[in-house]
Amino acid sequence: MGKVYLLDCTLRDGGYVNDWRFGEKAIKEIGRKLAQTGIEMFEVGFIKGDTYDPDRAVYPDVDHIKPMIQPKDTKMKYVGMVDMSAPIPLDRIPPCDGTSIDGIRVIFKKSKIHEAYEYCKKIQELGYFISVNFVGTDLYTDKEFIEGIELFNQLKPFAVSIVDSFGLIKRKQFLRLVYLADNNLAEGITLAYHAHNNLQQALGNAEALVEMNLKRDLVIDACVFGMGRGAGNLNLELFAEYMNENYDTNYKIEPMLEIMDEYLNEIHKSKFWGYSLPLYLSAINGCHPNYAIHLAEKDSLTVKSFNELLKGMPDENLKGWTRRIISTQGGVVCEPYYNKVLDFAMEFYVAHGSIECVGYSLFETDSRGIYKGNCLASNEEIERRLSVYINPEILGRTRKTLMQELLKLADGVYQGYLGVDMMVV
Question: pLDDT tens across 79-115, in order?
């Protein structure tokens, strides 16, 4: 059995919860306490952006990390992360001289794999050890995953990581990915695992990986208190205790508990992370947890409607195209994508701090969603037509919610008629 390394990513992946704003003192103290635990690796934060704030675990270059980790503990390796969605210029990464981080972990989506290879190659030439993190590993076909591994085998990175981005990889699928990686990684490359906990699989999968007794070394990512966006990540304190009980390691749990008590408990009270129904639904529908978090905050959907909406999320390629169009044009027309059956609108009148629903409009549009004309009908007839597709209770809740939100927007700044266009798909 190879060596098992524990890597703490509380400041980096946990930072999604609080916008990485832990405070300068907390960032330094968390690093010092983690060194006391005996874990082997500490991820100090993201290396991204152009500005520096000492209260955030985000750094525009490698040099800004130095004062946050001094004095370094000689028994622990320090790493930062670069996201290939927005990698920092390489001139902000000086040659590794041991005074700042020792390694850099590079995360990338499938579409960025060749750019990531070239970037990692240059980082490695600067003297840093690298970890290659396949975002959404379960979204790769077996052929794509193996080809990706073979590509990075040429670099002989320190580690290649299976990343469960949506927290939905169950044990059977996880072990299949492990076998693929172990059988195709070059000798000497460490296999890493980064879990998310939407389906509560993180601890079980990590234990199963260690219990496979692979000959190659392993890195297990974890966060103190399981801190992380949505359902959170693998709990460092739980996995360290598991290693102590089963593999005669001697990780110190008390400093982890002190981090929880002194720095994370207050954050958890105001910005909850952990298992929840919306995040479970996002996982089983293969959606990023951000969608579930956004919809849950609206607090206006039944569980059934929530689930149906997540089921209808477009695939990753269409999501990427949509983001680009919105960023350049300010919006995107969705009608061609949906199997639309009806176009209608709710009409309202707002005045003097009150709002009332005055009726409906029913439209005729072409296949591209372009307006062709109105259908003349009474409100009762339009409601009858809508009831074929929409439960009247849902229609009523929608009307009530719109009235509340529109009044907030219009009160004091607008008086008169307004409408909200909708479609049935």
Answer: 999 999 999 999 999 999 999 999 999 999 999 999 9
Give the C-alpha separation, 393 to 295, whole Å: 19
C-alpha span between 19 and 17 (Å, rounded): 6
Both tokens of 409, joined, read: 């927007």
Total residues belonging to the chain: 425
Does the pLDDT at position 333 exceed 70?
A: no
pLDDT digits (tens, 9 = 90+) for 369-416: 566 788 888 888 888 888 888 888 888 899 999 999 998 888 888 999
Distance of CA 324 to the CA centre of its chain: 19
Helix (H, G, I), strand (E, B) or coil at 5: strand
Residue 421, SS3 per DSSP: strand
Percent of the chain residues past pLDDT 70, beyond the cut: 86
Token pair for 57: 């675990």
Identify whether the C-beta of residue 162 lies closer than 8 Å to the C-beta of residue 177: yes
Euclidean distance between CA atoms 51 and 59, whole angstroms? 7
Residues 6+ apart with CB under 8 A from 285: 307, 310, 311, 313
